Amino acid sequence: MSASEPVELPEWERLRVLRAEAEFSSVKKDRRAAYTIWVFLGIFGGHRFYLGDTGRSVAMLFTLGGLGVWTLIDGLFVARRVTAVNRQRRAAIMARYNILDMP
Fold first, then answer.
1. Keywords in UniProt for this one (predicted)?
2. For 42, which of 27, 30, 56, 99 is 20 to 30 Å away at the CA?
3. Taking the model in full, what pTM does it have?
C-alpha cells in the first residue's frame, strides 16, 4: 500500500470523526453572515461580537468603531478573521476527540 492510498477506518473511528465534524459544523462561523453584520453593525463592533472577539468588540462599541476608521479597516480583514476563528475551533474540537487533523 502506497502513502497516497486512502486508509479504511474502523466503524467506531469513522463515527468518532463524524461526531467531531458535526460538532464543528454547529460552531463554525459563516463569512457571509460576518460581512452582513459588518455592513449593518460594524461601527458598533457587531461582527467582532459574532466572531467572539469580545474585548475588541467593546472597544469598538465605545469608540464607534474608532470613529469609523477601525470599521473600514476591519472590512478588509473579516474573511481572514472568520478563517482563523474556524481553524482554531476545528483544531480544538479535533484535539478533544484525539483526532489528528491534516490541513
1. Glycoprotein, Membrane, Signal, Transmembrane, Transmembrane helix
2. 27
3. 0.84
